[in-house]
Amino acid sequence: MVEQFAALIIVAPLIASLIVPLIGWRQKRLCYPWVVAVLVVPFICSLGVLNTVLTTGKFSYRLGGWAPPWGIEYAIDHLNAFVLVIVTFISLIIAVYSKKSVEKELAEEKIAPFYTLFLLLVTGLLGIVITGDVFNLFVFLEISSLSCYALIAIGEEGAPTAAFNYVILGTIAACFYLLGVGYLYIATGSLNMADLANILPSMYHSKVILVAFAFFTVSLAIKGGLFPLHTWLPDAYYTAPSVVSALIASLMTKVSAYVMIRVMFTVFQPHFSVDIVPVLPILGWMAVFAILFGGIKALAQTDLKRMLVYIVVAEVGYIIIGVSVANRMGLTGAILHIMNDAVMVACLFLIVGAIFYKTGTRDINKLHYLNKKMPFTMAAFTITALSMVGIPPACGFFSKWYLILGTIEAGQWVYAAALLCSSLINAVLFFRVIECAYLKPLNPVNAHTGETHMIQRDEAPLTMLAPIVIMAALVILLGMFSGNIISSIIQFAVPASF
Amino acid sequence: MLDYVISKYNFWIYVILMMIGLYAMIGKRNLIKKLIGMNIFQSAVILFYVSISVKAGATVPILSGHSYGHGELIEVAKYLNPLPHVLMLTAIVVSIATTGVALATLILIYRRYNTLEEDEILKIRRDTGV
Amino acid sequence: MDVVYSSRPLWAVLVSMIAAFLILATGEKNRNIRESWTIIAAFVKFFIVASMVPLILQGKVIEYTIITFYPGLLLQFRIDAFGMLFGLIASSLWIATSFYSIGYVRGLKEHAQTRYFFAFAMCLTSTIGIAFSANLLTFLIFYEMLTIATYPLVIHSESPEAVKGGRKYLTYTLTAGCVLLFATGMIYYMTGTLDFKAGGFLAGSGSSSVLIMLFAMFIFGFGVKAGIMPMHEWLPTAMVAPTPVSALLHAVAVVKAGVFGCLRVILYIFGPNLLHNLGIWLIMAYIVSFTVIVAGFLALGQDHLKRRLAFSTVNNLAMIILGAILLTKSSMTGAIIHMANHAFMKITLFFCAGALHVKAHKDYVSQLDGIGRQMPMTMGAFAIAAIGLSGIPPMNGFISKWFLCMGALEANQIIFLFVFFTSAMLDVAFLFPVIYNSFFKKPLDDVTPHFDEAPMLMVIPLTITALLSVVFGIAPDAFVHFFSITTIAVQNIMGVG
Question: Does this complex have an ipTM over 0.85?
Answer without folding.
Answer: yes
